[in-house]
């Protein structure tokens, strides 16, 4: 038996980034660990170390983020994978410099007004999203976890910073509705958190996205860290580069993630 923090993730658009090189920014089917940890960090009010030039602050904030990455295991139940969407994206950004000459901007307005408009650079990219995807997340504390699960639960109810699902253009459309429960395996913890509970008292049945009405016909996909307690047998093990090793330098290590359909022999 293990204690879990369980919460939901739903938005009209979500984006769980994969390795992005150049103009193509793909999105994975399942929430990435780095994105979920980033959401937790935002709820806690932890600042990113790449947003300051003060070395002491950078070190402190980097240490806090690394403690999150090492302190918790993650599992996810993809109840609705959603439909894919690709957006051709353009954005104007200034040259921020490097080293001691690096410029840190507090707001998007600062970025656009720091230099004459004709000197701004234009970035072109193709960004992938998932439409109307619904997932349930379970976290468990490992040895040395910096916060008890109850603290994370409380902060998700009253986050310090704005939460978003992968990108800033993807705010959650439902409350995260977190709960702490004890369960015999990740599948028990995740299965006890259904869609009815997720939307109860929030939206009328008539307003549900059409795809949600086929929920009972779907076959959820489970994803979990290798140290999870589970009776599920992995149908697939993938390597995802989503384990933060430096938020300051935006570096990530490879993490092995197991995947399976629940109680079926179907291939993913």
UniProtKB/TrEMBL annotation:
Organism for this UniProt entry: Thiocapsa rosea
Any GO MF annotation of the entry: RNA binding
UniProt entry tagged with the keyword Flavoprotein: no
Keyword list, A-Z: Antiviral defense
BP GO annotations: defense response to virus; maintenance of CRISPR repeat elements
Domain of life: Bacteria
UniProt lineage: Bacteria, Pseudomonadati, Pseudomonadota, Gammaproteobacteria, Chromatiales
The protein's name in its UniProt record: CRISPR system Cascade subunit CasD
Keyword Metal-binding set for record: no
Signal peptide: none
């Amino acid at each position: 038996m293990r204690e879990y923090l369980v919460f939901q993730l739903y938005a009209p658009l979500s984006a769980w980034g994969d390795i992005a090189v150049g103009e193509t920014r793909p999105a994975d089917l399942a929430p990435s660990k780095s994105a979920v940890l980033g959401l937790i960090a935002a709820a806690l009010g932890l600042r990113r170390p790449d947003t300051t030039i003060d070395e002491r602050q950078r070190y402190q904030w980097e240490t806090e983020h690394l403690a999150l990455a090492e302190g918790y295991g993650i599992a996810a139940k993809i109840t609705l994978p959603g439909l894919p969407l690709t957006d051709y994206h353009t954005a104007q950004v200034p040259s921020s410099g490097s080293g001691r000459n690096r410029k840190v901007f507090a707001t998007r307005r600062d970025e656009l007004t720091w230099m004459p408009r004709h000197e701004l650079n234009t970035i072109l990219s193709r960004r992938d999203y998932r439409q109307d995807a619904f997932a349930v997340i379970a976290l468990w504390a490992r040895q040395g976890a910096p916060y008890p699960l109850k603290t994370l639960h409380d902060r998700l109810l009253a986050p310090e910073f704005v939460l978003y699902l992968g990108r800033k253009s993807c705010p959650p459309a439902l409350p995260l509705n977190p709960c702490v429960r004890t369960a015999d395996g990740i599948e028990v913890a995740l299965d006890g958190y259904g869609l009815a509970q997720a939307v109860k008292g929030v939206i009328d049945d008539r307003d549900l996205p059409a795809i949600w009405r086929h929920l009972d016909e779907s076959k959820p996909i489970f994803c979990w860290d290798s140290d999870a307690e589970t009776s599920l047998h992995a149908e697939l093990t993938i390597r995802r580069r989503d384990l933060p090793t430096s938020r300051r330098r935006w570096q990530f290590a490879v993490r092995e993630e197991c995947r399976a359909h629940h109680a079926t022999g179907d291939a993913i």
